[in-house]
């Protein structure tokens, strides 16, 4: 039976008994020994506190015994696999401790555990590649499982836990973390709707800030920025300059990305051999560019979703219909503002960061 239920039942039982005595005493000609207001106020509060302490003290040994039992199960399981907890040497570059060390990370950050090492998953989402024993539940969880907040785990084998969002955890034993530095941008506060996406594009080297301390998430994404980012996503392959577009001269910061994207038919100009690198890129243009990039790398782009469910689906240009339908089906573009695609709206740097993160997740 739960502690709170037990405490409530005991307290109510005593209160009813004592309350009845107090009520009975009010009919007597002499003054009551205990007043009703005292019973319902000061006495009941003190009584509840005493009962709560009694319950806590009584259940603490049971709780500790159960935790020890679960840990024995987990360690016996490790021993049955030939793993002796606490006997593994620390590899070069890894860390080791017999006490829990607190860590935090963002989406994509990871921590690897050697067999017998432990992790307490405190908050956020995380997925394991490698078998773990859930000490809290006393069961084994296979590779690919999602960790539960507040649960403690032991690694049966070499396991890597990857965060799917902002997360906090503590590790013990032998581990190697790939948690990267905090963002340097004062205009990207932790907890903002675009924080994880900005963290992703910045640490992956896809974006730079507009200054050392600013990201400018609300600024429009320019066409030249878009080609540069995709060139970086492709690994920044070498580019031999060609005057594909008359307004893309050799030697600018966006030259390589735009020439590369043009050569590989990932982008097209706007006519008259112009590219207009400083113009904002619209949401439907982004869909077409990502669709072309997916074709370029050989991904399956056959998925489609009807656009009629969006109030402005009919506003998607004919040249962008296939790409937008694919992007919606892939989850890269999602409806906003009451179920609208907003195909002709320019996208901000933060919005494109989110689309790129979704796009790479789809590619993988």
Structural summary, described in words:
The protein is α+β, with helices and mostly antiparallel strands and 364 residues long. It is built from eight helices and nine strands. Strands 1, 2, 3, 4, 5, 6, 7, 8 and 9 form a nine-stranded antiparallel β-sheet that branches. Strand 5 and strand 6 (139-141) form a beta hairpin. Helix 3 (195-203) packs across helix 8, helix 4 packs across helix 5 (255-263) and helix 6 packs across helix 7 (321-329). Mean pLDDT is 82; it is low at 1-32.
Q: Number of DSSP strands?
A: 9
Q: What structural class results from the helix and strand content? A: alpha+beta
Give the proportion of residues in helices.
25-40%
Number of domains: 3
Order of helices and strands, N to C?
Answer: HHEEEEEEEEEHHHHHH
Descriptors:
single chain, 364 residues, Jelly Rolls, nine-stranded antiparallel β-sheet, 8 helices, elongated
Secondary-structure topology with pairs:
Elements: H1 3-25, H2 36-80, E1 95-105, E2 110-113, E3 118-123, E4 126-129, E5 132-134, E6 139-141, E7 151-155, E8 159-163, E9 167-177, H3 195-203, H4 223-233, H5 255-263, H6 283-296, H7 321-329, H8 349-363
Antiparallel strand pairs: 1-9, 2-8, 2-9, 3-7, 3-9, 4-8, 5-6, 5-7
């Amino acid at each position: 039976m739960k502690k709170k239920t037990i405490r409530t039942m005991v307290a109510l039982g005593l209160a009813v008994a004592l309350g009845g005595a107090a009520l009975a005493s009010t009919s007597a000609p002499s003054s009551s020994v205990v007043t009703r207001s005292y019973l319902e106020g000061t006495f009941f509060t003190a009584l509840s506190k005493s009962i709560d302490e009694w319950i806590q003290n009584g259940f603490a040994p049971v709780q500790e015994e159960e935790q020890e039992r679960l840990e024995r199960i987990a360690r016996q399981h490790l021993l049955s696999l030939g793993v002796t907890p606490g006997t593994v040497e620390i590899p070069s570059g890894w860390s080791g401790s017999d006490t829990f060390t607190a860590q935090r990370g963002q989406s994509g950050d990871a921590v690897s555990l050697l067999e017998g090492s432990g992790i307490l998953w405190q908050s956020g989402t995380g997925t394991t590649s490698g078998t773990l024993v859930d000490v809290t539940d006393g069961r084994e969880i296979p590779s690919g499982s999602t960790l539960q907040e507040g649960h403690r785990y032991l690694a049966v084998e070499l396991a890597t836990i990857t965060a799917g969002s902002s997360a906090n955890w503590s590790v013990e034993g032998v581990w190697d973390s790939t948690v990267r530095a905090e963002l340097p941008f004062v205009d990207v506060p932790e907890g903002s709707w675009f924080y994880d996406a900005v963290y992703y594009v910045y640490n992956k080297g896809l974006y730079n800030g507009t200054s050392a301390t600013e990201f400018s998430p609300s600024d429009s994404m320019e066409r030249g920025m878009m080609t540069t980012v995709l060139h970086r996503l492709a690994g920044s392959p070498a580019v031999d300059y060609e005057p594909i577009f008359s307004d893309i001269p050799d030697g600018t910061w966006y030259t390589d990305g735009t020439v590369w994207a043009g050569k590989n038919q990932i982008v097209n100009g706007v006519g008259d051999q112009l590219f207009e690198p400083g113009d904002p890129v619209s949401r439907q243009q982004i869909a077409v560019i990502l669709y072309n990039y997916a074709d370029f790398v050989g991904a399956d782009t056959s998925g489609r979703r009807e656009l009629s469910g969006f109030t402005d689906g009919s506003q998607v240009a004919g040249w962008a219909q296939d790409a937008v339908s694919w992007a919606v089906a892939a989850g890269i573009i999602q409806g906003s503002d009451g179920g609208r695609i907003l195909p002709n709206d320019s996208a901000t740097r933060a919005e494109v960061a989110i689309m790129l993160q979704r796009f790479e997740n789809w590619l993988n």
